[in-house]
Design brief:
single chain, alpha/beta, globular, four-stranded antiparallel sheet, binds adenosine-5'-triphosphate, Rossmann fold
């Protein structure tokens, strides 16, 4: 079961984070915590900076100000072995899965093991097979990405992100391009991995059914104020948020102007 957010120290701490491009801030002074085992979802209107925030959390971009701490270690600005140690603690699934098309599923999942470990060849194969099995893809090890469905490609990307037994998985729009049934199956996989392995998930998604199925907690980013408009349980926010825009978002209602 996910830990009670109140009882465990945060696995991710974001403090006074300001981020943007070309000296122009997109989001300012963000502060939030993510608890171990939580499924945490980042929401907001198009272009408000959800993916950019995710890229800051995983260290792809350096912030204009503030810090990200992962597992008690300050990640922002950390270099060398200390940075590699933090990188090993999380896996990432990018928006379209980003599998290498010329490599089998097994070789795709082996990649992080080759980069970060000196395990013998057979051990890497064994670990990669186990990860594929965990996402329901036993028997597909020798397939190429083009030979499997979109949902299976997403699951392979999750298996690869789990290769190093991470504490945290970051997923950028995992349902993008999937039909509603495949998307619902992916939600169930996320829930199962969360329950069985206690992995913390940080997910960017627009999909309302996914949000209500998987999210323990959400933050809603706001383009106008460049901050966090709302934070909490999605059903609570849908029914009781003081912000009309937040209630409309969750109830999928158009604004008067649109
Ligand atoms: N590398 C970059 N350089 C300059 N501007 C960027 C870069 N990446 C994103 N942006 C801009 O930052 C803003 C936020 O983009 P981002 O992709 O983070 O938004 P988002 O909330 O994830 O949007 P969507 O829901 O449409 O995917 C956009 O205006 C985008 O054009």
């Amino acid at each position: 079961m996910p830990s009670d957010p109140q009882s465990s120290p945060a696995i991710i701490q974001v403090r006074d984070l300001t981020l943007g491009f070309g000296g122009r801030p997109l989001l300012k002074d963000l502060c939030f915590d993510i608890a171990p085992g939580e499924i945490f979802v980042i929401l907001g209107g198009s272009g408000c900076g959800k993916s950019t925030l995710l890229k800051h959390l995983i260290g792809l971009y350096e912030p204009m100000a503030g810090s990200v701490t992962i597992g008690g270690e300050v990640f922002t600005g950390t270099e060398g072995q200390a940075r590699r140690d933090i990188l090993r603690r999380f896996g990432v699934m990018y928006q379209m899965g980003a599998l290498f098309g010329s490599m089998t599923l097994l070789d795709n999942v082996r990649l992080p093991l080759e980069e970060f470990t000196d395990l013998p060849d057979e051990a890497m194969d064994l670990v990669a097979r186990l990860k594929l099995q965990l996402v329901g893809l036993a028997g597909f090890e020798r397939h190429l990405p083009a030979e499997i469905s979109g949902g299976m490609q997403k699951r392979t990307a999750i298996a690869r992100a789990m290769a190093l037994d991470p504490d945290i998985l970051f997923l950028d729009e995992p349902s993008a391009g999937l039909d509603p049934i495949t998307s619902a199956e992916l939600d169930q996989l996320i829930l199962r991995l969360s329950r069985i392995l206690g992995i913390t998930f940080v997910v960017v998604t627009h999909e309302l059914p996914s949000i209500f199925t998987i999210a323990d907690r959400v933050i809603m980013l706001d383009k106008e104020t460049q901050g966090i408009l709302a934070e909490g349980d999605p059903a609570q926010l849908r029914d009781h948020s003081e912000h009309p825009w937040v209630r409309r978002f969750f109830n999928r209602e158009a604004t008067e102007a649109s």
